Amino acid sequence: MPLLEVKDLKVRVEDREILHGLTLTVNPGEVHAIMGPNGSGKSTLSHVIAGKPGYEVTDGEILFRGEDLLEMEPDERAAKGVFLAFQYPVEIPGVATMNFLRTALNAQRKARGESEFSTPDFLKKVREVAKSLNIPQDMLKRGVNVGFSGGEKKRNEILQMALFEPAVCILDEMDSGLDIDALRIAADGVNALRSPDRAMVVITHYQRLLNYIVPDFVHVMSKGRVVKSGGKDLALELEASGYTQFEDAA
Amino acid sequence: MNVVLAKNETGRALSESFAVVRDRLPGGGKIAEARNTAFEVYDRVGLPHRRLEDWKYTDLRALMREVLPLAAEPDAAALKQAAAAVKLQAIKGARRLVLVDGVFAPKLSELEGLEKGVTVRTLRAVLETGDAALQTQLFTPDNANPMVALNSAMMTDGVVIEIANGVVLKQPLQIIHVAGGATPAAIFTRSLLRLGEDAGATLVESYIAADGVKAYQTHDSLIVAIGDNSRLDHVRLIEDGRDAFNISSAAVTLGAHAHFNTFGMTSGAAVSRYQATIAFAGEGSRVETNGVNLLNGRQHADTTLFMDHAVPHCASREVFRAVVDDRGHSVFQGRIVVRPDAQKTDAKMMTRALLLSDDAEADNKPELEIFADDVTCGHGATTGALDESLLFYLRARGLSEKEAQALLIQAFVGEAIESIVNDDLRELAIAAAQRWLEARG
Ligand SMILES: Nc1ncnc2c1ncn2[C@@H]1O[C@H](COP(=O)(O)OP(=O)(O)OP(=O)(O)O)[C@@H](O)[C@H]1O
Ligand SMILES: [Mg+2]
């Protein structure tokens, strides 16, 4: 069974249709890349999958392991294994990163009927993951994303992904704002999570990221639809010729 | 012309109540006279109502539907109940002074080993046998406020603490007001803290109910005098039962180069009003006040502060926060007066309200009356809901709506709690906020 199926999805925001019938099927173990010009609806798709309020789904459906995802609250989706690494992670002053991570992890575990992590086990796990992503300990003592640089915010998203071990990871422009070294470290973090029962959807503008995270499929989105799908070479083709050819197709 | 306003049933019942108990109240002679005078002043207006400017958001005539009989002395059962409740409020290293149903409870309190230069007596003892100066000081709060006048007339007990010049107390003093009686009753207490010169102390006031004790009315009043070069840290936590009333007043005066840091949080009681007057009597002094209301259901909480800048070179900071859910109603009235002599006054006031439901209400009434020309004064206010984008981020990470709200509320309240200097007291305040959050489910 596919992990994630988006079928003929139509989405409106404030009376304007943004997604006009989008279809995407993601099987366990696969890495999908979504590319497409600014405003083509990539973040909108990721938000609707994660359950952000303010979007009206007028047609189509999203299934997660065959279950109707659109019926679920955002936290239910997270507990079931849907993870979105945000294009623009928010800052949450006054909420210490460690406290946030523990509350979130334990909330997910509780929802799945698993036991909560003890404090020492939790700390050990966070430290390991943080170290592998080159995230200094003092960053974890601050408020969530407060005073983090753009790149640090992105690394904090990958840290959460590694900690929560989701089934489907949607990475919305995780490469924007990362320098070359940070990009490699983050990509290594993502690759370490690749597994036969986990899938990734990597949204990016740049072929470069796909040199590090090599996709099985590349989809081109334009004006709220997938206009072309192919293998990893499609990304190279795009890099060379741009999106104009597909915009005509849309 | 003597305007006699119509009094409602509750007001009338209070008059009768005073007539019944006056002879049993502590203190004869001058004190009985002072009580009578105070009661007459109260009785002219009766329970304050919304047509009095100061009470327009807190109409006690509408809110206080019945007058309860004066609380009886706590019996063994009440004391036992109270002892259990007090445990929840225990702070490491604090000296506990417990009032059960308005009566000092020596067995639950810690009076032994008082530091040199510190005296603690009960209000009853001071009214009955204390020196005249102290007795006079106990009647200084302004009876022009009807609820202060009522308290002056009815006060039965409390604690009177004196700290001599040069004594800096490490150990916090904690006055715990516990309602422990099985029958609903009215409780009238008054306490006093006199801090000498070059002295320092930390005072905590907690208002709680024993398990299962619900409807009662607490009327409290506090008098504080902070001497020159002295510092008082003050924490008040209102965690009264959900059907209770808490009407408290404070009158604080600061000498020169004194410092008063006060934090108050109301998460309990059905209806509460805290009215404090803080007066600068010496130059170069500073006041920081932080307040928090955590309200849900139909809770109503009113904080009314009067900052009286009478002398030059003093600074005051007031930050008031409200978190209001359901049909809760939070009121903040902040009045700052800068008198003609009070040049170089630096007075600021800020209120921030978080409304968690459409029916939640937060009223804010700032009043600045400035009669000096070389001053820095200002006030600001914000009202809003929790940030949707932050809530969604948290929910996308697996937190339920309530859990996500709780984290953001903790952060909002946490900023105020940060103002508490003592670590153990910060923990106490965090625990109180946590209890409120957990109770909302
Ligand atoms: N809340 C909103 N209100 C109005 N329009 C919106 C809203 N959210 C998105 N849109 C519009 O929907 C379209 C798609 O936006 P989206 O953010 O999904 O694009 P994107 O493909 O992620 O772009 P980028 O590559 O720049 O990140 C844009 O035209 C955007 O302006
Ligand atoms: Mg985007």
Verbal overview:
The complex is a heterodimer of chains A (250) and B (441). In chain A, α2 crosses α3 and α6 runs parallel beside α7. Chain A has a single domain, classed as Rossmann fold (3-Layer(aba) Sandwich), CATH 3.40.50. Chain A contains 10 helices and 12 strands. In chain A, strands 6-9-10-3-11-12 form a 6-stranded mixed β-sheet, with helices on both faces. Chain A has a 4-stranded antiparallel β-sheet with strand order 2-1-4-5, covered by helices on one side. The model of chain A has no long low-confidence stretch (mean pLDDT 93). By secondary structure, chain A is of the alpha/beta class. The N and C termini of chain B lie far apart (54 Å). Helices cover 26% and strands 37% of the residues of chain B. The N terminus of chain B is likely disordered. Chain B is globular, with a radius of gyration of 21 Å. Chain B has one domain. Bound molecules: adenosine-5'-triphosphate and magnesium ion. Chain A: One of its GO terms (molecular function) is ATP hydrolysis activity. Chain A: It comes from Bradyrhizobium australiense. Chain A: Pfam families: ABC_tran (PF00005).
